[in-house]
Amino acid sequence: MEIKSVPSQIARNNTVSYSSIQEKLENKKTIILDGGMGAELEKNGAKMDEKMWCGKCSVDHPDLVRKIHEDYINAGADVITTNTYSTTPISMRQYGYEDSIEEFNKKSVQVAKEAIKNSNKDVALAGSVSTFGNFYKLGVKAMIPGFNEQLKILSGEGVDLIILEAMSSQADIVETMLNCSTNVNIPVWLSVSCVMDDQKNIMLGYNDTIDSDTHVYENFETSIINFKKLHNGPILVAHSDINITGQAIQAAKKNYDGIVGAYPNKGYYEKPHWRFVDDMTPIGYLNEVKSWIKNGAQIIGGCCGIGVDEIKAISILKN
Known about the structure:
CATH architecture: Alpha-Beta Barrel
Low-confidence stretches: 1-13
Helix content: 40-55%
Number of strands: 13
Number of domains: 1
Number of helices: 12
């Protein structure tokens, strides 16, 4: 199915909005991405849904979602991300929200746009297209319609770029997402998560809970070599342990000539809550980020457990 991006009447001028980001990247400058949404919403009083996590908040608590976006903008984020990570069509159908797919995704874009407008700052809006709910047993072919549907909705609502949040996904799912994304006419960033295997190799995979084994998939460097055949936009190490992220950035730079970056997590998931672990201060995070930038990372933000305070701390690295 061919996807055509038809901006809504309230869409911003995508070309102008993203051009400043592109210019900074081309000039080797650092771009600050926002941090996690779900954990910040919960800290501010929003209720997490047992199945949809924070996905319903754009409709149930739009003022809180807007506030979190504004907090990240005020903290120094150059790019904020729509609250659409867990509103994938495949998960919404699975959990009985089939009739609300467009409503939830469009509302998330609209709330984020309002936050940018209120800030009166030059901030780009990224549309999150993820693998939330895309269980591997379904097979990648069954995931394609959902990827295409969410890409169409978000690009049609006028986001400035797409972030394919393929965290916790195997390589063939990532490649399927990349193939689907070729049908949209806006920039595409890719994010994947990493773990370390028993032989200390960096691998695609994830471990974000305290009561389950680490999921180890394909070799990270081999995967990057394959992904770059399909993708020439930024590749980000996301939703990964901070201690692994630095090594993954070096491996990505070794095998990819394009832009790389990172937005790791801190803490663990205990459905439907993200549990904070106070094992690193914002200044501590800043010091970690400095080393990543030294090793070639240009886009830095945070995922689950990395919040407004951390983004404010690293915003001093913008140049």
